[in-house]
Amino acid sequence: MKIIGIDNGVTGSISVLESDGHLVLYAKTPVIHQLNYTKTKAWIHRVDHEALGKILETYAQDECRVALERPMIMPGRFKATVSAIRALESTQVILERLKLPFRFIDSKEWQKVMLPAGLKGDELKEASTNVCARIFPNLTIKRHGDGDSLLIAEYLRRTA
Question: Is 144's pLDDT higher than 80?
Answer without folding.
Answer: no
